[in-house]
Amino acid sequence: MDGVFLLFVAIFTAYLGTMATRMKLKLKTVFVLYFTVSLMGLVYALMQLGQRCDCTEHDMAKDRAISRLRDELHRLQAQIRQLEEAKPPQKQPSKSSLPTIFVITPTYARLVQKAELTRLSHTFLHVPQLHWIVVEDSPQKTPLVTDLLMKSGLTYTHLHVPTAKERKLQEGDPSWLKPRGVEQRNEGLRWLREDRRDGQQGVVYFADDDNTYSLQIFEEMRNTQRVSVWPVGLVGAMKFESPVVEGGKVVRFHTGWRPNRPFPMDMAGFAVSLKLVLTNPEACFDGEAPMGFLESSFLKGLVTMDELEPKADNCTKVLVWHTRTEKPKMKREEALQAQGLGSDPAVEASPERKVQQRRDDNR
Ligand code: UDP
Ligand code: MN
């Protein structure tokens, strides 16, 4: 197209030359005509610059090159993995000298479980020297959690213990009536006391599967001496609850409900040194504690308010949120299932129906 236009301009110029000679036109007129046509040519050429060209051929060649390079990359990555596996284990002084963060997470089968654990595992992947202790509220380890942990790329321990029937919320109970995840947190503590008797440098944190954690909170807690504390966002029907710090010490708590509890804090708002957990083998969560006293039941034998170590800029930053996930509606799924058109059960979006059903029946 451009070639045709240029040819046209050339022919037109030659034609003008001939005409000018024949018609004895003034040089000025010829020049003006010549200038106008050239200008049109320039404008046309500029307009063509922004146009897409027919690059299918070009793109295909590029795609082929990209796919070749990608194959090569995968081949090299596999080679690196193989070589690394063959290497004798090496000490990584900078990493392994960090105190380990043992995160204890109770979890139970429900529709959002896989989504919660996926999000949580992706947060933890960004945290160095973290050991995830996942405790399922179930009589056996479930395939969903087993598989998720195996593929997670994290250092983990997989445990399970079912909540006793009388401690479980019953159908229609409000969620606050009974504490949740108690036996599971205690099982995590039991494992630590059995397996980590050597008392390596470490810290223990109880991370529910539905909360939201910034990466910073893990670095705040890493060097906990006894018990460190910080604010928790979106909890207790408040924007945040928090220890109040004066002169570097916790002097009281900002909370809207029973501030005189020994430790009016959410589970997500403190971490305990591994040493303190190991030297106090009796310390555990009391499932029978009155509502709001679960955290206190664990902490009261371990520490006094005066000894708490305030983190997150003297408790002025919110770095963890007590978020809660909405229960998904299954109205259309159920309607389709009634017609035999339910979602393919071989595709794992959530725990299998049977598990889900059993849990719902228990509630
Ligand atoms: N949880 C559990 N079994 C249950 C209910 C809850 O193991 O029957 C776990 C849950 O996965 C979470 C923790 O216990 O990690 C706290 O539960 P939830 O988030 O429901 O409590 P809330 O946010 O209402 O305090
Ligand atoms: Mn929760």
Automatic annotation (TrEMBL):
Residues 326-335, 350-363 have a biased composition (Basic and acidic residues). One of its GO terms (cellular component) is Golgi membrane. Its cofactor is Mn(2+). The record marks 241 as: Interaction with galactose moiety of substrate glycoprotein. Gene3D superfamilies: Spore Coat Polysaccharide Biosynthesis Protein SpsA, Chain A (3.90.550.10). Its EC number is 2.4.1.135. GO terms for molecular function: galactosylgalactosylxylosylprotein 3-beta-glucuronosyltransferase activity; metal ion binding. Keywords: Disulfide bond, Glycoprotein, Golgi apparatus, Manganese, Membrane, Metal-binding, Signal-anchor, Transferase, Transmembrane, Transmembrane helix. The keyword Transmembrane applies. Mn(2+) binds at residue 210. One of its GO terms (biological process) is cartilage development. The chain crosses the membrane at residues 6-23, 30-47. Pfam families: Glyco_transf_43 (PF03360). It comes from Nothobranchius furzeri. Belongs to the glycosyltransferase 43 family. The active site is at 295 (proton donor/acceptor). It is a single-pass type II membrane protein. It catalyses: 3-O-(beta-D-galactosyl-(1->3)-beta-D-galactosyl-(1->4)-beta-D-xylosyl)-L-seryl-[protein] + UDP-alpha-D-glucuronate = 3-O-(beta-D-GlcA-(1->3)-beta-D-Gal-(1->3)-beta-D-Gal-(1->4)-beta-D-Xyl)-L-seryl-[protein] + UDP + H(+). This is Galactosylgalactosylxylosylprotein 3-beta-glucuronosyltransferase. The gene is B3GAT3. Residues 326-363 are annotated as: Disordered.
